[in-house]
Amino acid sequence: MKNVMGLINLHESHDLLREITKNRPLAAIPFGGRYRLIDFVLSNFINSGITNVGILSAGNSRSLMDHIRSGKEWDLARKRDGLFILPSLQTDNVQGAFPKDLVDFFNNLDYIRSSRQRYVLLSGSRAVCNINYEAAFRFHQEKNADITILYKEYSDTDVRQMTGATLLETTSDGRIVDMEICPVSARSNKLSLAMYLMERSLFVDLIDASVARGGTNLARDCFLKNLENLRIYGFPFQGYLAQINSVQDYFSHSMALLTPAVWQELFFSNGSIYTKVKDAAPAKYQQDAQVRSSLVANGSVIAGKVENSILFRGAKIHKDARITNSIIMQNGEVGPGAIIENVICDKDVKITAGKRLKGELNHPIVITKGTVI
Questions:
Q1: 201 with 85, same domain?
Q2: How many CB atoms neighbour CB 80 within 10 A?
Q3: Which terminus of the chain has a smaller tally of CB atoms within 10 A, N or C?
Q4: How many CB atoms lie within 10 A of CB 202?
Q5: What are the backbone angles phi and psi of residue 156, rounded to the nearest 5°?
């Protein structure tokens, strides 16, 4: 797929993730002990042979830029093509069902026009999966499609995962005949991954025409409004998908990583997932440490009991502390005798000695970054 350029759209609504996205964009949310959400789409691009990647920034992206740096970890620090940060003229955080991303695409048309690839593949960061795009690219060419949208088909019992997302309705041959963006009630079981494949020239024309008519949102004004005018097809993705739309989604999909089969498929099925390299000593388990069914990143020091939990780099669990069904992000610390269950502790959170915090599996407690309890 050397003839395809990748674009990552950070204009993603995160109204239901405000506790975690207060100081960062959705793409910078830590996930799986040592990764960020953007690691998955960047790794998917490079594993598919895409070497020209532009990131359309939005809101407060400082932490994300620090994580990505030159793109070296994803083999994108290149003299030709490579990684490009596309600035946003908007200072507000992304909110609502229809982020105003179209204006920023329009303001960066010079980069899109000057790229040498014929096709463009757009993706957000909330769809966490391991995918090689070559099959979707072949499907796009075989169908002679103008636009191909990747989607995941769920059973009726998984309808909760589709609430507040973009849903598709297709014919038997895969052509999309209807789209619903953030419906209150799900009326389809085909969840859009917000991944769009098309020719670059068509993408430029869609942006230009939509902005000229007052359009502000890419999905609504470029795709939804052109269902009858363009040949838009849906390509089904069959692998594991973690769609992060809310705090509960983030918590449940993080806990799913404790299942070895899920971990194996997400991180190795179609190539490795890469992230920023941080040198640190291996995790240290002291004499009284007890750890079961957990992910523990390097640099952690454990003297207490950890069960069904995820510890990020540099986490410290003191003696007699008990961690159950919880997520402790980077440099988090749980003091002696503290007990936490069903809790998400953001970076640099400190739980002092003897404290007890208990949430519910369907409603975890979130402790914001840098808080001391």
A1: yes
A2: 7
A3: C
A4: 16
A5: -60, -25
In a shared domain, residues 247 and 299: no
**Domain check: are 21 and 158 in the same one?**
yes
Rg (CA), the chain: 21
**Residue at token pair 């191909």:** 148
Q: Which domain range does residue 13 map to?
A: 4-268
At residue 6, the 3 state secondary structure works out as strand
For CA atoms 98, 100, 104, 106, the dihedral sign is positive
Q: Which residues of 97-133 are buried (b: 16+ CB within 10 A; e: fewer)?
A: ebbbbbbbbbbbeebbeebebebbbbbbbbbbbbbbb
The residue length of the chain stands at 373
The two three-digit tokens of residue 206, written as one number: 């869609």
List, for residues 166-210, the tens digit of each pLDDT value: 899 999 999 999 998 887 777 788 999 999 999 999 999 999 999
Question: Is residue 254 included in any domain, yes or no?
Answer: yes
Token pair belonging to 39: 């690691």
